[in-house]
Structure formats: C-alpha cells, structure tokens
C-alpha cells in the first residue's frame, strides 16, 4: 500500500462583521425567531458588506490558513475554490484569489457543486497529491449567499449566511485523507436552483429535506463500509450545516451520538460550500479536534450533489 497521503495541515476562516439574528429578520419578513429556530436550529447568520465579495472573504480565510501552516505564497502549487457565488463570471474566483494572495507559481480553478463544493474540491485535491502533481494545495469554500436572496421571500432568506473557510492540504507520509466519495443526480435540478434569468434562490424545502436525509444517511453508511470501520470509531462528524434537523436525522439513522457532531449552523446559517471548512476551523480553534481523530465530512447540495470524506486529523 502506498504510504503517500494528503493531509489537512492547517485551516482558517472568515465571517463578515455584520450579524443578522432571527429577531432582526422578523422585522423584515413575516417570521419569528421561534419558527426559524424550531425548524432549522439557526439563531443568527453573518452577512457580507455590499462591497465585500466571495474573493475578499476567501482571501481573509486563506491568509489565516497559510499563516498557521507557516507557508509562503511560493509554497502553494494549486488553488481550488468551491463557490456558487463568484465575484465575476470569469476569471474564476480561484484566479482572483491567487492574485490577491500574490501566489505566482500555482494553477487555480473553481468547482461549483453548490453546498457540496468543498467536498468535491477535497476529492480533486487529494488526487493531485496522490499523483504527485501538487504538494501544497489551498482549498477554500467561500460564499456570499446573501447576494442570491430575495429578502421578501421568508421561505429562503432565513436559511442562508455568508463566510469563507480555507484549509491547506499537503503531501504527507502520515495518514490523512483515507477516502473520498462524490456523486450527483441532475434529475433534481429544479428542487433547489438559481436560474440564469433569475437573481434568487428557488427551493422546494420539503423535498430537499427528505432527499437530503435519505442520501446523507446512505452515504455515511457506505463510507463506513468502504473503509471497514464501525460508527463507534468515528470521533467527529462534520456535516454540511444546512439545518440541525437534517443533521440530527442523519445522526439518528447512523446511530452517532450528538456529542460527536460539529454544529455551527446555529451561528452561521447555511453558508453552502463554506460551511464545512468554517465548521472545521471552529472545531479546531475551540480545541475539539485532536491529532489522530477520525473525522467524517459529509455534504449535500443543489443538483443534487453529495459527497463524503473520511480522514485522520
Ligand atoms: N417563517 C414563518 N413561516 C414560514 C417561513 C418562515 N421563515 N417559511 C415558510 N413558512 C410557512 C410556509 O409558508 C407554510 O405556511 P402555510 O402552511 O400557511 O403554507 C408553513 O410555514 C410550512 O411550510 P413548510 O415549507 O412546509 O415548512 P417546513 O416545516 O418544511 O420547513 C424548511 C421549511 C425550509 C425549514 C424545511 O423544509 C427545510 O429545512 N428544508 C431543507 C432546506 C435546506 O436545507 N436547503 C439547503 C440544502 S443544501
């Protein structure tokens, strides 16, 4: 067996200064803190300033991850940005980030798999390390979801938030990423979408909820089976933070105690591709993640898309 692994060596995150609580939202649309909290677990979310883009947020998160890893711009050979809210149609967010960070020798591109984008990026990055094309990869999930929200639509505007999370994935001879798995089914394209001729998110919330729970439950089980491990061996599940009811239903399906789940949806809302790296960074900085911990990442998003990763911290 190969002893070359890709390993997460550092992380960083950025949340915009402005905090919008459920109570604040109740002044804008016909909703209440209790309704939002009971159905989603969300208490507040961060909202980017008008002149703050997904690139600006990615830049702030990336600087922290690079500083923690003690890497200079020249040490990064590849950048992948997961986003569905790019600053421009082109060039990609990754290229704009490369320019802001003054990283010269890397190549950079975006992936768009909506809320699953970060796991897709990790899947791709792992393969570039396994094939020895890259040694240090900057992976960022960054989203300005507020730019896609209709602040008159209570069905969607209460759910999302803005932010960015970054990690550095590096070549290592110690165990890191053990497996990744990604999937998609475009037949569900209309259940959660922003059409090209529309500015805003449209969603069939009930359908999304049911399919998310079913798909993520199955995916978690198949990830365990593929790696021949028991659920008891998992130290942390870091799921996409869309909704605490979805997360709790998955935990129940796979018999994982709630204490082993990293939860940030209460404070961040659904930040799409940024949600897993934001949650990862939160858990790292509050001391939850320990060296050697076995961690499962799991995401689900528009498409539908889904993905999981099993890794040793
Ligand atoms: N405040 C108050 N009432 C609201 C509301 C809000 N923010 N949003 C919707 N409602 C109302 C609806 O209009 C509806 O009223 P009606 O019965 O008079 O028509 C009622 O609440 C129930 O709506 P429904 O959509 O059935 O609620 P729900 O229990 O399914 O909860 C979601 C709605 C969106 C919270 C839930 O479906 C969900 O979490 N879905 C998954 C969404 C998601 O995570 N998407 C991203 C995946 S990556």
Main sheet characteristics: 5 strands, mixed
Strand content: 25-35%
- In helices, the fraction of residues equals 25-40%
Give the overall form.
globular
Structural domain tally:
2
Number of beta-strand segments: 13
Give the spatial strand order of the biggest sheet: 1-7-6-4-5
Give a list of the ligands: coenzyme A
Distance between the termini: 20 Å
CATH architecture of the largest domain: 3-Layer(aba) Sandwich
- Report the CATH superfamily of the largest domain: Thiolase/Chalcone synthase
Unreliable spans are: none
Class inferred from helices and paired strands: alpha/beta
Mean pLDDT: 97
CATH class of the largest domain: Alpha Beta
Oligomer: single chain
State the helix count: 10
Radius of gyration: 18 Å
Topology readout:
Blueprint: E1 5-14, E2 18-21, H1 22-26, H2 33-40, E3 44-47, H3 54-68, E4 78-82, H4 93-101, E5 107-111, H5 117-130, E6 136-144, H6 154-157, E7 162-172, E8 177-184, E9 192-193, E10 202-203, H7 205-226, E11 236-239, H8 244-253, H9 265-268, H10 275-285, E12 294-301, E13 305-312
Helix pairs in contact: 3-4, 7-8
The structure holds coenzyme A.
Coenzyme A is lined by residues 31, 35-36, 39-40, 115, 154-155, 158, 203, 205-206, 208-209, 212, 242-243, 246, 270, 300-301.
